[in-house]
Specification:
The complex is a heterodimer of chains A (about 325) and B (about 675).
Chain A (H helix, E strand, L loop, with lengths): L1 H7 L5 H26 L3 H24 L6 H23 L13 H25 L5 H9 L7 H30 L1 H7 L3 H23 L1 H16 L5 H25 L5 H19 L5 H16 L6 H4 L10
Helix pairs in contact in A: 1-11, 2-7, 2-9, 2-10, 2-11, 3-4, 3-5, 3-9, 3-10, 4-5, 4-9, 7-8, 7-9, 9-10, 10-11, 10-12, 11-12
Chain B lengths: L14 H4 L16 E3 L36 E4 L2 H11 L4 E4 L14 H8 L3 E4 L9 H5 L7 E4 L9 H4 L34 H18 L2 H35 L7 E6 L3 H7 L2 E6 L9 H14 L3 E3 L7 H12 L4 H11 L4 H19 L3 H4 L6 H11 L8 H8 L6 E9 L2 E10 L5 E5 L6 H8 L7 E5 L12 E4 L13 H7 L20 H13 L15 H14 L4 E4 L8 H16 L3 E5 L3 H7 L2 E6 L1 E7 H4 L2 H8 L12
Parallel strand pairs in B: 2-3, 2-4, 4-5, 6-7, 11-15, 11-16, 13-14, 14-15
Antiparallel strand pairs in B: 1-8, 9-10, 9-12, 16-17
Classes of the chains: A mainly alpha (about 325), B alpha/beta (about 675).
């Protein structure tokens, strides 16, 4: 307990501080960006991006070794990841039919996402296999790139996270209303003349940046959790977009902070995994305890209602304005 | 720090030693070597010698041996180190092939078909074992049959053999033989360390065990010659080389003060080396190249680096250098570290004052770091009071009939919507064919037709939501993009996720993001909601009788109320043409009456209402014009003409004639 306090008050040493701050900032960025991704139903894009990063990373490695490139490695791999990730996102968009339209010959968006995700991961595995035979070393680093090395965060990485968090918050403040309007009703937004494509591109770019940065930090398989869990948790507590983004950012930051602090005090706890576990724990806790949508609160209210109904009491006034009170949904 | 990339898997150094040039002094790592050099510790100067990583990896050249001479037994080895032993011993009598080229990580390697073919063609398969070939282990073990021997080379040292008795057995958990690193917590869970070749003596003993196996491979006439060459010639040579390497290594490491014989590396692969030469070996992560280290482990190692004043940390090419770089950064950032402070406290009884001072500085800096995430929040755009006042002056309290009827009439002179040869197809299936039609301004117009007639598609194609196959749609004589402000669209209610976290008022305000009252040059969708927009949204909600529910989340509204919110959103746009897609679907009678009443009022104001509607009776009663379509244009004009029985029959088919007014 003492150790945790020491870590949280930034007395845990340079590396702990860097990881703590970096993970917190990443959590903030992921939470804020994830909110809009969730509202626009693009959460899985992060998943596709991170899976599609594998062929990009392996491909960039292969190309670089083929041309004898010896410069800095991280930017090169990141470029590869970004390129293939965006390609995959575009492929999903092209393959899936839009909301409500009946474009024949296209797939439902979950099918499209799964298809692209699986095939790009397959391609990545093949390329990784090739890369592992090229010799010259560093192939294990490729896997490390994919699975993340939170504990190895450098001060430089923390600055990147700070920039990312700033960018995400600025985007939420400046573009938030537009993004929300597009997410709520894209067709209306288009007829009204909102720059839907530009806003979607901005969102995709934000998701891509957070995913790539998060992949470095918590790893490909876990970054999606950081993008999905905080907004889902926040949704259980608040009912408007602005506070949703703010709370999701705060929850993401808290996950990063507490997760990395725990991993700094517990023996042999891989940091990325602990962060994601904290985010998931917050979600489960909220799911149980939220006063408006929580499982416990809803069950309690239902029991009270049943009690009234069984005794032949009048319909409680609070229930009359409930969702879809007079007509059922069509 | 620039680190060159193309490195062999094993820290290579000893090639020259093998060639016989012994006694060369231990070197500082050359600049290109993968060592990250730490800053000199303390004011008392550096008293440290460098650590030299030593390996056998490059004893001889790597991959495959020479072309196979006919008749020789085939030995397939997995790693270059094993292939090297086999080649050194059996050259001339057996043909040796190596699967993994130099620099390939055995933990990650997967056998491909070619590899399997080579393995199947082998008389003897040599692999390291102890999970080194993580992804191939099971395959390899399963290869043994009557014709083929499979030997886990390193595992030969594990059994209750002479090797054990001679103290050469497999090391169990890393760190068990060398004094365990002080801050390392629990021992890793894995049982054995596969990196046996790091100890030349053990490797030489393994070679001794291998030699008779190789001899037995050679067919009878040459076996005696092979026995002589291998057992009496090659094996002693190999052992002598290994012995020379052991002596050279011992001499090198002896130059390092005993207390500082610590080898810090990225992954736990050097315990055999440490065991042989009396080094304390500390790995950042476990035996596998794939495990991940936690922050705590990094801090522990930074403590160790600083406390023991370790001058260099080695990076292995097989393991990402990130974590090692973090170690170095941490050590650099902490010139007077806890570990050192503790040591000083022990020595002096208490920390010296200047150190506390320094520490406070550190903390101040951390606070600064900590403050950084809050900064963006302070950057929220604050609209100046003057700007806000100017805004209000410009727009005032903006009512819905701003501009007055005459203005609307004026600008409605043009035809609100004209379709010219509009054809639409979903992929290869035509939905609408050659629709030519012009709407009369100031009317309530219903689009009717059977299910699948293309009513919704007509609206969406006109509004540019689905691509046109041919033709065009002109609004007020111009393309939609030029006159968006004069057109409002009410989509089908099903098209929306009603669990979206917005209030009714916010939904209506979304209608004003483009073309509503503007502040300055920026479009409304940037930044926060201007107050004028909120007021106008409230007014629009009052128009549809929902003022009291303005702050309700839309999910809590009934279907009819949701439809009214949608209408309010369109009304707020103050448009001259309002396009609605099935506005009466799933709404209650009260809302339906309200919609009809609103439509009448809009038409009276000179605006045009264009709605998809199913109920022909209600169309006759409440609409002025009708557009009947069934893939193509069936009829258009005043309802009395357009909805004549023979037209309905044509559009809906004979089956529905009986249904009359209540077509689907």
């Amino acid at each position: 307990m003492d150790g945790l306090l020491e870590v949280l008050t930034l007395r845990g040493g340079h590396n702990t501080n860097v990881v703590l701050i970096g993970a917190t900032l990443l959590g903030v960025a992921a939470g804020v960006v994830g909110t809009f991704a969730m509202l626009r139903r693009r959460s899985l894009v992060a998943d596709a991006l991170s899976h599609a990063a594998l062929p990009g990373v392996a491909g960039a490695f292969l190309i670089a070794s083929a041309v004898g490139y010896t410069g800095p490695r991280l930017p090169m791999l990141l470029c590869g990841a970004l390129a293939s990730g965006l390609l995959a996102a575009a492929a999903i968009e092209a393959l899936s039919r839009g909301q409500g339209t009946q474009r024949r010959g296209r797939l439902a968006s979950d099918t499209a996402t799964a298809t692209v995700l699986a095939s790009s991961f397959g391609l990545g595995t093949v390329l990784l296999g090739l890369a592992q035979r090229t010799g010259g070393g560093g192939q294990a680093g490729l896997a490390g790139f994919i699975f993340g090395r939170t504990a190895g965060m450098l001060a430089r990485d923390a600055y990147v996270m700070a920039g990312l968090a700033t960018l995400a918050l600025a985007a939420a403040l400046v573009l938030g209303r537009g993004l929300a309007a597009v997410a709520f009703n894209e067709r209306f937004a288009r007829t009204a003349g909102l720059p839907v494509r530009a806003l979607d591109s901005a969102l995709a770019a934000l998701i891509a940046m957070v995913t790539l940065a998060g992949m470095q930090a918590v790893g490909m398989l876990l970054v999606v959790a950081l993008i999905v869990a905080p907004p889902a948790t926040a949704r259980l507590w608040v009912t408007n977009v602005r506070s949703l983004a703010a709370l999701a950012g705060a929850l993401g930051g808290a996950s990063g902070l507490v997760g990395s602090a725990l991993s700094a005090t517990l023996p042999d706890a891989p940091t990325g995994a602990v962060i994601v576990l904290v985010a998931s724990a917050l979600f489960l806790l909220s799911l149980a305890l939220s006063p408006s949508r929580g499982v416990l609160a809803v069950a309690r209210r239902r029991r009270a209602l049943a009690h009234v109904a069984q005794r032949g009491g009048a319909l409680p006034p609070a229930a009359q304005g409930g969702p879809q009170a007079s007509e059922g949904t069509p | 720090m620039p680190v060159s990339r193309h490195r062999p898997f094993f820290p290579a150094l000893a090639a020259s030693v093998v060639g016989g040039r012994q006694g060369s002094a231990p070197r500082q790592p050359a600049p290109g070597r993968r060592a990250l050099v730490l800053p000199p510790w303390g004011r008392r100067g550096v008293r440290l010698a460098a650590l030299v990583a030593l390996g056998l990896g490059q004893l001889s050249c790597g991959a495959s041996g020479p072309a196979r001479p006919a008749g020789q037994p085939v030995v397939v080895a997995t790693t270059a180190m094993i292939g090297d032993v086999a080649q050194a011993l059996g050259a001339g009598h057996v043909h040796v092939e190596t699967l993994l080229g130099s620099g390939v990580d055995p933990h990650l390697y997967r056998a491909n078909r070619d590899d399997v073919a080579r393995l199947m063609g082998a008389d003897l398969v040599l692999y390291n074992g102890v999970h080194l070939e993580g992804r191939m282990g099971d395959t390899l073990a399963g290869l043994a049959d009557g014709a083929r021997q499979v030997v886990a080379f390193a595992e030969q040292l594990g059994g209750p053999s002479e090797a054990r008795r001679a103290g050469l057995g497999l090391l169990s958990a890393p760190g068990s033989s060398s004094s365990a690193s002080e801050p390392a917590g629990a021992t890793p869970a894995h049982a054995f360390d596969p990196h046996v070749w790091m100890d030349p003596a053990r490797w030489a003993y393994a070679a001794e065990l291998l030699a008779p196996t190789l001899v037995a491979l050679v067919p009878e006439p040459e076996r005696e010659a092979a026995r002589r060459d291998i057992i009496e010639g090659a094996l002693p040579n190999f052992q002598a080389t290994a012995q020379a390497l052991v002596e050279f290594g011992a001499a090198c490491f002896a130059t390092i003060p005993e207390k500082q014989r610590v080898l810090v590396t990225a992954h736990d692969a050097f315990h055999y080396l440490g065991d042989r030469f009396g080094l304390e070996v500390v790995g950042l992560q476990g035996v596998s190249t794939e495990s991940e280290a936690g922050v705590r482990r990094i801090e522990e190692l930074v403590d160790l680096l600083v406390a023991r004043r370790i001058p260099a940390v080695f990076v292995e090419s097989s393991v990402p250098d990130r974590a090692v770089k973090a170690l170095v950064e941490g050590a650099r950032a902490r010139p007077r570290d806890r570990g050192r402070r503790r040591a000083l406290q022990r020595r002096d009884g208490r920390a010296r004052h200047p150190r506390r001072h320094v520490r406070r500085d550190d903390r101040a800096q951390h606070h600064d770091d900590h403050a950084r995430p809050r900064r963006p929040r302070a950057g929220r755009p604050v609209r100046g009071l003057a700007l806000r006042r100017a805004e209000r002056a410009r727009h005032g309290r903006v009512g819905l009939t701003r501009g007055g009827r005459s203005m609307i009439r004026q600008r409605n002179d043009a035809c609100p919507l004209e379709l010219r040869g509009l054809s639409v197809a979903y992929a290869d299936v035509p939905v609408l064919w050659d629709i030519n039609w012009a709407a009369r301004p100031g009317r309530r117009i219903a689009i009717v037709g059977p299910n699948g007639a293309g009513k919704t598609t007509l609206l969406e194609a006109a509004l540019g939501l689905v691509p046109k196959l041919a033709g065009e749609a002109l609004f007020f004589g111009r393309p939609l993009a030029a006159v968006r402000d004069r057109v409002a669209y009410v989509p089908q209610r099903e098209a929306v996720d009603w669990d979206f976290p917005v209030t009714a008022r916010e939904v209506v305000a979304m209608g004003l993001l483009m073309g509503g009252p503007r502040r300055g040059l920026l479009p409304n969708w940037l930044g926060g909601t201007p107050r004028a927009l909120t007021e106008r949204a409230t007014d629009a909600l009052a128009e549809v009788g929902l003022a009291a529910l303005a702050d309700r989340p839309i999910g809590q509204l009934s279907g009819g109320q949701q439809q009214r919110v949608f209408l309010a959103r369109a009304l707020a746009r103050d448009a001259a043409l309002i396009v609605l897609d099935e506005p009466f679907a799933g709404v209650d009678a009260a809302t339906e009456a309200l919609l009809h009443e609103r439509f009448a009022r809009l038409a009276a104001e000179g605006r045009t209402v264009l709605a998809v509607h199913h109920d022909l009776g209600s169309v006759r009663q409440h609409f002025d014009d009708a557009l009947v379509i069934h893939r193509t244009l069936v009829a258009a004009g005043p309802v009395a003409d357009a909805l004549a029985p023979e037209v309905i029959a044509r559009a809906y088919g004979a089956a529905q004639r009986e249904l009359g007014a209540t077509a689907p």
